[in-house]
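Chain A, query sequence.
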Amino acid sequence: MVKRSTTEERVLTRIRPTQTERDKICGVARRLLEAISATGQADGMVVGSIARNTWISGEHDIDIFLLFDPSLSREALEGQGMALARRIAVQFTDRFYEKYAEHPYIYACIDNIDVDLVPCYAVESATKIQSAVDRTPFHTRYITEKINGLIDDVLLLKQFAKTGGIYGSDQMTEGFSGYLCELLVLNYGGFIPLLEAAALWRPGTVIDIEHHSAKQFEEPLVVVDPVDPKRNVAASVSLDRMVEFIELSRGYLEVPSEAFFMIRQPPSIMKDELAAILKRRGTSLFAITFATPPYIEEIVVPQLKRSVIAIREHLERNGFVVHHAHYRMEQEQCMLLFELLVSKVPRIRRHKGPPLWNRINAEKFREKHRASSYAGPYIEDGRYEMEVPREFTEAKSLLSSPSLLTVSLGKHVRQALAESWQVEEDAGCWQECFAPFIAMFFDRCSPLTRIQRKK
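Chain A, predicted structure.
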């Protein structure tokens, strides 16, 4: 029996689901499974944290997979699977619609519980999957068989990761999935043993519970999937999220506190507060906003990241020094945010030419520019150089110009920008729906620093 600190016991009392919650969730799941079974078209299976009893109080969502014969074509799976999912959903609610990941599924709200009805293949082994979701039932079976006695440890780890802002394998978070948390607890035998090990982690750490890895992985943290030796369960974990977990582990082990399990409300900011921050910092802020492309987060967010990098390079090539840049996807709009140290530059800039010993190109350069009204061509450090006029002297003009579409944007981001985009400056960047994002943009600090400040 694991001896826990009073801090951890108090946290568990708060985050364990109540019996009332369990009865409600299990009741809805049971009714759905019975409805699926009655059709005779597929087998139903509850997967995820609900099936494994590793869900935290207040998390009311059920994932139910509809398992079809693997001999079905992919087209038939989608057609029959979605038809069955809609047939089941309509028996319980009128609040449902299609969502898309690798293939479509049905989201429904039943008795105020979020339910995903996901068609998949009932394959023999996770190494024979025909779609990414086919692996999930094997995850559920593996964890269910082994997690007894460690469920509370998983709950603590999930709450710990959520408070630290590193829980979730989505593209915005790049953090720890629920399945990854379960495997880490299994591997180390508990919450505290995991933290003790993580405090010593370095990039390149490899965890292979079943000792069956079938390939080399390049990610900072590698946790070989026990049911698929060619998959890294921690592939979504960025280097920063991994290091933040190391920091949090060290912080908790040094000074344990309930603050490590108390999720704070997202910060926000008002327009006048933003203006005051910018005045104090002496920087300029620019926001590019545009309609969110009609694709899932897993597709759009990487393109936002790529676009921010490309636009940042575009700004700096034109002399506008970027201090910090980030992005956010909301349901209706996306925002790309840039804090600049320099937002206005002189009309002229220096333009380097070839060295004089590159005779042919040097003479071409001199002939091309000898009638310039600016200084040059002159010789400096053995090569021609001259002054040339800038196309843009203000960052807002550059960001508003068609030149924005010439940089290496993500495909769907480019399509959205081609329709229209808006550029706002300084306090004008403020929008209510992006207020939490803007607040976090200026409140950057490590998870442990934030927790210590809160204490």
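The radius of gyration is 27 Å. The chain has a mean pLDDT of 93.
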